[in-house]
Structure formats: structure tokens, C-alpha cells
């Protein structure tokens, strides 16, 4: 992957766009991702919801929450427990059934165990017993450690685990993020990892969350947290290419307003929607994401852009570049359009398959390579440019 950094000069100052932060020995390693956890002061629930939130955008109203019948939950739990016994067999010979069960939603009581099996972190942990504890004994990079400390109280401040500064939740989050910087010192610390690590800690102990984070960074979001944001730029262009196929009118509207994908989808992808959607929807997306991979992020992204901008009424509300970007921040998206069942159903209805995504991915890689080579020729770089300069001097 090779592409010049995107031009952010025309992004509004108050837009939550990615910026690079020096976080590892003087090199740009951490990329600021907007908090996205706007506190709604008018929400004062008597107690936490069943996910641990006291308020804010992630709070789930118990009276409005859709509940799966208890009998159905018990049946699903039994099926998942059976799968755990012969996990390798299910994944190799009955993966379609595993995928179908993930799409229906993993039983909450087994979600942590299922996620670890799906991403393979359970097996990695068994092979590396004691490594996490060893990482915690190491000092770590001072710059990374300082940046992590600054971010601890910004992660889901209205969740019971992370309310108290220096509390158990924040301490566990620090341990997971610090251990990752030692495990992957070249990457250092990226702020977008913090909400992912926080979500994992809501479901499992620190050591398990750490290895799950490692698996996600290594297998799913490869290169996302490396300097330059090249991987996320590539996936942004892939998303745009797929949007051209699924919603050509919306694509044309965004191109006309010179909106680049990295301006609105960065937080979606880098944080795997943990900062962008209702919590029940986030968990359902994660059930599929850890089973099927990054294609789930693309499907969700395509549906979100479609329901946000498609249609004459939506278009009329976005006459300018700023209006369209504000819409894509999803803050005013109708609740029914963020509903878990609606979004999952719409993603599965998209006329886009894995082959289409891979084809678009390869197309964008070639396009980037050609753009880089063209730029090098124009700047006189490379062997061709050197020969041309020598010939001119003679």
C-alpha cells in the first residue's frame, strides 16, 4: 500500500477527523480518534443498563430494549456450548452454521468465550501463558505510557467500569494498552485501540482482553494502527468503490462535494463502530465481525451511508459539503435506522459479496500504485527521472 496522505485542508475545524500524535520516541505513532461519547445531560437513569452504562449515547433504555425470549436464549446457549467442545471441527466443516449463529446474535453469557474462539485469542493465550504478566513488569516507552494515561478517563466515561479515575477499569485498560505497546513496539500506541480494548474489558479479564486485542490488530485490522493511516485510506477507497456500485446517486453526490471517505469512515472502521452506534447494535456487529472479518465493517458502512443520504429528502438536507459531513456523523440518524435488527438485515440484503470486495480491493491497490508512480515521474524521482536529468545536463 502506498499513497500520499489525504488532504485534510478543507475539513471543517470542528469535524472529528484523524490527526497524528507523536507517541513513540518522537515518531508519529498514535492517531487521535474522536471520543464520540457525547454526554446527554438530560438522561439521568436510576441505575445502569444491563451493559453497565449510566447514560450517554450508549445507554440502552430497559423499557425500549428488544429482548430475545429466555427459552430461545437457553437453546442458543446449548448450541454454543456444544460448538466449543468440538470447535475446530465446527470451524472447518460447519462454518456456515457458525456464521448463521453469529448473525442471530451470540448469547450474552457466552459472548466473551465465543469472541475469543472466533478470533483465535483463546489458543494464543494458552501458548503464551505468563507473557502478559512479563509485559506488565517492563517499563514501556515513556511517551506511549504518558499518552495512554491521558486517554484513560476519555473511554466510555459513563460506563460503570471506567467512571473512577485510577479505578479498577481504568487500571485494567492501562495494562492492556501498555502491554500492546511492548508487544508491538513499532506501532506504539494508537488512540483508536482504546475503545476496542475497553469493549473487550467489559466482557473479559485483562489478560484475555489483551490477546483478543492482539488478534484483532494482527488478523482483522492489519496496518490500521501503523503510522500514515495508509491501510485505513485504502479501505476508505474500497468502501467508496463499493458505494458506487450499491448507491450510485449517493456516490455522485459525495464526489460532487469533494468528500473523501477518510473524512467520515475513519472512526467507524478504526474503532469498529464502538463510538458510532447504539450498544446493542455494536455487540451484534462484533458478533459477525469476529466471525466473518472486515467485510462486515464494509457492509455496515455501506448501509449507514445509504440510509443517511439516499432519497430526495435526505439529499435536500445536504446542499453543502459541511451539511453532508454533519449527516454522516450519525448524531441525528433516526433510532430505527440504527436498530440492530434493521442494520443486520440491510447489510445481508446488499448486492455485494466477498468476491466483489476483493476485486475492488485489488483495483484500488493498482490505482494507488499507478498514482504513486505517476507522482514520482512528475517529481523527477526514480531511475527514469535521474536519467532524464543527466541527459538534460549533457
UniProtKB/TrEMBL annotation:
<dbReference type="InterPro" id="IPR050302">
    <property type="entry name" value="Rab_GAP_TBC_domain"/>
</dbReference>
<feature type="compositionally biased region" description="Polar residues">
    <location>
        <begin position="35"/>
        <end position="47"/>
    </location>
</feature>
<feature type="domain" description="Rab-GAP TBC">
    <location>
        <begin position="105"/>
        <end position="293"/>
    </location>
</feature>
<dbReference type="InterPro" id="IPR000195">
    <property type="entry name" value="Rab-GAP-TBC_dom"/>
</dbReference>
<dbReference type="InterPro" id="IPR035969">
    <property type="entry name" value="Rab-GAP_TBC_sf"/>
</dbReference>
<protein>
    <submittedName>
        <fullName>TBC1 domain family member 10A</fullName>
    </submittedName>
</protein>
<feature type="region of interest" description="Disordered">
    <location>
        <begin position="1"/>
        <end position="51"/>
    </location>
</feature>
<feature type="region of interest" description="Disordered">
    <location>
        <begin position="358"/>
        <end position="394"/>
    </location>
</feature>
<dbReference type="Pfam" id="PF00566">
    <property type="entry name" value="RabGAP-TBC"/>
</dbReference>
